[in-house]
Design goal:
By secondary structure, this protein is mainly alpha-helical. The protein contains 20 helices and six strands. The two termini are 37 Å apart.
Length: 455
């Protein structure tokens, strides 16, 4: 029996064109298009004035996704965006290769440029006192075992509660929120460093060419303090480039310039990646005119799933196992025997190597302590290549960084979440310029047909 050979109950009434269209959620003209393409069969009853359709055949088409227009134009949800293009194993932000951006600019500089189109050398993002205080108090109240994603989600809600002007969706207000929210999220995470924070010299070398300018837009301090106000020592420690500040939340090991360069580059490369699940969630929230804190919360919610943000943690644990067992072959064999994808390999958008991984691996070559983890990653790639055409993705490169620097397995997810916040803001700014509530797909009802008896 073919897909179209659906047995019909002789007692079941056939559907009119309008009724078939209603069940499929399409226009009557589209029903006839399905007929012409062989997806539906029609029949004219003796004495009837129109075509009729087998209800079981119509329902079967609906279950296969027949609501999508057969022209192909509506076969996927497409969202117009000028932020990211993925093409031929390259990733571009506004037409500029992301690897080049990561090699020449800091995370803050690229984020600002992505939002405004202006490359502001040496720009710093600093958390405002009220938002930071609220976020830290909320995070500190969580149980000791709480993970970083839980802390970030709580921190963004607390920061929103401290901002009575969060509902102002003007471009200037959204940009001000973006410049302060990201450092607030980082500063709300507990420090792991046992000694002093990374040295200023190391921080400056990691962000070569970045000025000591602490002023935000319009000449105001980004932390909201006036020139005559002296910030507390705790708040003052949160000045400087973002990468060293995040480093102290990820590991107790001292920072060195090459490692900080890798971290900063990772933040740049992970800012956006087209319409990933979390970014689509952000666009939907922005379409409903949610404020920036709420759209970041929507992104965190999707990112917290096991199939999105947690991938680098799986690669981290795999590399530790390779280093412990001294063999990638045994570890890869265990994954393949269990029917699992080898972590950190393969990406549906890149037939070859993920360009973000390529850029990070090149930088990791300059980090001496990364050599064992880097060799372990290469062994995994080489071993797997004998059986599968899987190339390294950014999760494997992140895992090399986190393993080499004593970071926990969830550190890659934290880096991903902080970095992607800038991309979510960029998408929100785009979506705020679109008609509201346009992200409204129609549901495909698959329940019992009415009328049904009262339960």
């Amino acid at each position: 029996m073919t897909d179209h050979d659906v047995a019909q109950d002789p007692d079941e009434r056939r559907l009119s064109t309008r009724e078939a269209a209603d069940r499929l959620g399409v226009k009557p003209e589209t029903v006839y298009a399905y007929v012409s393409r062989g997806q539906l069969t029609s029949r004219r009853e003796p004495g009837g004035r129109g075509s009729t359709f087998d209800p079981k055949e119509v329902d079967a088409l609906a279950r296969r996704g027949g609501r999508r227009e057969p022209s192909g134009a509506g076969s996927e949800l497409a969202v117009r965006t000028g932020i990211t293009l993925i093409d031929r194993d390259h990733c571009y932000f506004r037409g500029v290769d992301t690897s080049e951006l990561a090699a020449h600019h800091s995370y803050e500089e690229v984020a600002e440029w992505l939002w405004t189109g202006e490359m502001r050398r040496g720009i710093r993002f600093t958390a405002p006192h009220d938002a930071l205080t609220a976020a830290r108090r909320a995070v500190d109240a969580l149980p000791a075992h709480t993970g970083p994603m839980d802390r970030l989600q709580v921190a963004v809600i607390a920061a929103a509660a401290a901002d009575p002007l969060r509902f102002d969706l003007s471009e200037r207000a959204v940009l001000d929120t973006a410049r302060t929210l990201i450092p607030t999220l980082v500063a709300a995470l507990p420090r792991r460093a046992t000694g002093r924070p990374p040295t200023q010299a190391g921080a400056e070398e990691a962000g070569a060419g970045r000025a000591d300018d602490e002023l935000g837009a319009g000449g105001r301090r980004a932390d909201g303090l006036g020139a005559a106000d002296k910030p507390s020592p705790e708040l003052a420690a949160e000045d400087g480039p973002l990468a060293p500040r995040l480093w102290s939340r990820l590991t107790s090991e001292p920072a060195d310039p090459p490692s900080l360069r890798v971290l900063d580059a990772a933040l740049v490369l992970l800012i956006d990646h087209d319409l990933a699940a979390s970014t689509l969630a952000v666009r939907v929230a922005a379409s409903a005119r949610a404020h920036p804190y709420a759209i970041v919360s929507a992104g965190f919610g999707a990112l917290d799933g096991a199939l999105h943000g947690a991938a680098s943690g799986l690669a981290h644990r795999m590399l530790l196992e390779v280093l412990d067992r001294g063999s990638a072959a045994a570890v890869v064999a265990d994954h393949l025997r269990a029917g699992r994808q080898v972590p950190g390999l393969g990406h549906p958008l890149y037939p070859g190597e993920d360009p973000r991984a390529r850029a990070l691996f090149a930088l990791l070559e300059d980090v001496p302590r990364a050599r064992p983890a880097l060799q372990a990653a290469r062994d995994v790639i080489t071993t797997t290549a004998r059986h599968k055409e899987w190339r390294a993705n950014v999760d494997l490169a992140l895992a090399v960084l986190t393993v080499a620097t004593g970071m926990p397995a969830e550190a890659g997810e934290t880096i991903f979440a902080v970095a992607r916040t800038a991309g979510w803001i960029a998408h929100a700014l785009e979506e705020y310029d679109e008609p509201p509530l346009r992200m409204r797909p129609s549901g495909q009802y698959s329940g019992p047909r009415p009328p049904q008896p009262l339960p």
